Amino acid sequence: MIYQRVALIGLGLIASSMAHAMRAGGLAGEIVGHAKSAETRDVALKLFCDRVTETAAEAVQGADLVVLAVPVGAMAEIAAEIAPHLKPGAVVTDVGSVKQAVVDAVAPHLGPGVHFIPGHPLAGTEYSGPQSGFATLFQNRWWLLTPLPDTNAVEIARLRRFLEAMGANVDEMDVARHDLVLAVVSHTPHLIAYTMVGVADHMRRVSAQEVIKYSASGFRDFTRIAASDPTMWRDVFLTNKEAVLDILGRFAEELFSLQRAIRMGDGEQLHAYFTRTREIRRGIIEAGQDTAAPDFGRAARPKSEG
Ligand code: NAP
Fold first, then answer.
1. Which of 8, 9, 11, 14 is the best mutation target for the ligand 1 pocket, counting ligand atoms within 8 Å of the beta carbon and taking the most?
2. 36, 155: one domain
3. Which of 173, 204, 239 is the last residue of a domain?
4. Mutate which of 13, 54, 99 to test ligand 1's pocket (most atoms within 8 Å of Cβ)?
5. What is the rounded average pLDDT of the residues 53-67?
């Protein structure tokens, strides 16, 4: 056991997967949960919580570790509510997909006797809610911690041990760097997927179902990503605005350059470009973050997102 009592605030995909992994590994003495709706709390109590509470304030009482697993836009309100009820010496972490906005929303509420260690698991699926979690979600996935400069090293080490025991590979990163990197590897690709599916939806009206009927693997992968939770992704774009707009600007430049190559019939440019991008795919496989097996969008496996 690494923490005696763990409080999960928000009981969706990430929190439920953590609870299943904690139970599988015997990592917590007691798992207490809180979510907004009674319906979610009931499901959580049946599937993975030892106890659920009607308020977040009750859930955190006596907890050694508090995990904020709500959409990024709800973090400030929760932090304000729980702050007066935290046990001295408690560790507070979060799993939000954006880090600067969470630090700004949470840190000002917490007193000096509490250790705040922001975090983000790079693991997820397009499913949400308390039924969607599973114990192996974090296996061989990165979990980035973005501790603030004066954070207690012993508590960082303990949290690392806890996350590693759930199967994650843990790394530490600066807050701003995290938001830029995630804008490249996750946030902007999601926006592009949402856009492409929107375009196809428009086309479908024009071409009477063919887009759906004959959709090839590329489009099916886009639809899987574009099925991700609307609240979570709205908050990601509203709170990682600058980094996403920066990457989108670069994306638009590249797109125009490829558009021009197509118009001019510049096969050499297209071939050279696609050769470079294929190397990136190889690098991801070599880094163990995906397999080389063909996947036509049918395999039910977790994607590395968020
Ligand atoms: P989810 O499945 O949609 O669950 C969200 C949970 O938060 C629900 O239990 C919801 O309760 C609860 N909640 C929302 N607002 C609340 C409030 N004001 N007070 C109390 N509970 C509240 O979400 P998730 O996918 O686990 O995502 C949670 C966090 O993880 C987000 O910050 C997201 O950015 C991050 N993340 C997600 C992924 C991913 O791929 N899904 C990956 C990495 C990180 P109800 O059910 O009662 O509404």
1. 14
2. yes
3. 173
4. 13
5. 98
Domain presence at residue 273:
no
What CATH number is given to the structural domain containing 36? 3.40.50.720
Q: For the segment 107-161, what is each residue's pLDDT rounded down to a tens digit?
A: 999 988 999 999 999 999 889 999 999 999 999 999 999 999 999 999 999 999 9
* pLDDT above 90 (res 287): no
Ligand 1 cavity residues, CB under 6 Å: 10-15, 35-37, 40, 69-72, 74, 77-78, 95-97, 120-121, 124, 128-129, 229, 232, 305-306
Closest C-alpha residue for ligand 1 atom 37? 306
> What does pTM read for this prediction?
0.92
Given a cut of 90, is residue 289 above it in pLDDT?
Answer: no
Are 139 and 146 in contact by the 8 Å Cβ rule? The answer is no
* Rounded Cα distance, 59 and 34, in Å: 6
Q: Find the domain containing 246 and state its range.
A: 177-264
For 160-204, how does the pLDDT look when each residue is reduced to its tens digit (9 = 90+)? 999 999 999 999 999 999 999 999 999 999 999 999 888 887 876
Structure tokens at 266: 């510049």
From the list 64, 78, 76, 72, the residue with the least C-alpha distance to 36 is 78
Cα–ligand 1 centroid distance for 36 (angstroms)? 10
- What confidence tens digit (pLDDT) does each residue in 65-102 have? 999 999 999 999 999 999 999 999 999 999 999 999 99
Please identify which residue in the block is written with the tokens 């995990």: 67
Residue at 229 is within a domain: yes
Q: How far apart are the first and last CA of the chain?
A: 28
What's the structural domain count of the chain?
Answer: 2
CA-closest residue to ligand 1 atom 9:
11
Residue 98 CA, closest ligand 1 atom number: 34
- Which ligand 1 atom is nearest residue 41's CA? 47
Mutation pick for ligand 1 pocket among 97, 182, 190 (CB with most ligand atoms within 8 Å): 97
Measured in whole angstroms, how far is the alpha carbon of residue 68 from the centre of its chain? Answer: 12
Task: Determine the Cα angle at 105 with ends 181 and 129, to 5°.
Answer: 75
